[in-house]
Specification:
It is built from 13 helices and nine strands. It is α/β, with parallel strands linked by helices. The relative contact order is 0.15.
Length: 318
């Protein structure tokens, strides 16, 4: 299993790719789950479409819906989940190379993962900027204004001479350059040797893997690198027909006879890391961290797992 692989090969360069699913048990909604996802519950903001709340052009015309949503999402109102604490344990045990997160909630940092170990692919609430002037704005000031409501936000925008928003990457904006460099998506990052070239185990947690370029990162690890998906659904599945048509063989090969390195746990990520921590001998440490954050959430439903397949060839660590 994966835990045995980590111990046997002494993995020291594990990369975690995380999505909104790891924060659901903290009380934060994910984005795309039917009925409960964020995009399905934005009707109260009277948006032309749910994703408009994160569209930079719409924000410039009408910032109020984002400010109202930011009041609900702003860090400091939620506790890290067991999955966040597990990522912290990977760091504590000197096994975490980097955590690439799509989340804007900053719960990795709250769990104790150092900032240099976290790449917020879509930005987060750690800093803020005036969109119109480019001036940096103290995030504590932004938080106070957003929590004060419309009057506070208007006063903040007048003070700084334009619309102020946390440094979250909206649709229509570039992602943080640090993401591109460390992921090897720039010339500078590729020349210097990116994180994914060094990866000895990829763990993908709680993400639908539909947003690019984040989704493409699963194919940047070496061919000898095992890949583990912890998610409620199998996502980014390899399509042999598409591979022939495009010449690019991408995605997880769970259902393909050529699979030799992809494994999965279908279910809540908290349940998955609880089992993995037990196999790594970390249960006591994880339980203590989880207890300090309010305790374990109720287990999720048992989902049908992907049938295990005999590996086509053994993975060797080179």
């Amino acid at each position: 299993g994966v835990a045995e692989y980590i111990k046997k090969h002494d993995c020291k360069n594990i990369i975690v790719m995380a999505g909104a699913g790891i924060s659901v048990s903290a009380g934060l909604p994910d984005f795309r789950s039917p009925g409960t996802g964020l995009y399905d519950n934005l009707a109260k903001y009277n948006l032309p479409e749910p994703t408009a709340v994160f569209n930079i052009n719409f924000f410039k015309e009408n910032p109020a819906p984002f400010y109202m949503l930011a009041k609900e999402l702003f860090p400091g109102q939620y506790e890290p989940t067991p999955t966040h604490h597990f990522i912290r344990l990977l760091h504590d045990d000197h096994r975490l190379l980097r955590c690439y997160t799509q989340n804007i909630d900053s719960l990795e940092a709250q769990a104790g993962v150092p900032s240099e170990k976290v790449v917020a692919a879509h930005g987060n609430f750690d800093s803020a900027t005036c969109v119109d002037t480019g001036e940096r704005v103290p995030i504590d000031e932004v938080r106070a204004a957003i929590m004060a409501g419309e009057e506070g936000c208007n006063a903040l925008n007048i003070k700084y001479g334009g619309l102020v928003k946390p440094d979250i990457s909206f649709f229509g904006e570039k992602l943080p350059m640090r993401f591109y460099d460390l992921a090897g998506l720039t010339e500078q990052g590729s020349e210097g040797g990116c994180d994914f070239d060094q990866c000895d185990l990829l763990m993908v947690m709680g993400t639908s893997l539909v947003v690019q370029p984040f989704a493409s990162l699963i194919d940047k690890v070496p061919d000898t690198c095992p890949r583990l998906l912890l998610n409620r659904q199998a996502v980014s599945k390899y399509n042999p027909v598409l591979a022939v048509m495009t010449g690019e063989a991408s995605g997880f090969r769970f259902f393909d006879h050529t699979n030799y390195r992809d494994a999965s746990f279908l279910g809540n990520t908290d349940d998955a890391v609880k089992s993995l921590a037990a196999m790594l001998g970390w249960s006591e440490k994880l339980d203590a961290l989880v207890a300090a954050s309010g305790g374990w959430p109720a287990p999720g439903p048992e989902l049908e797992q992907i049938s295990a397949r005999t590996p086509r060839k053994q993975i060797s660590k080179k």
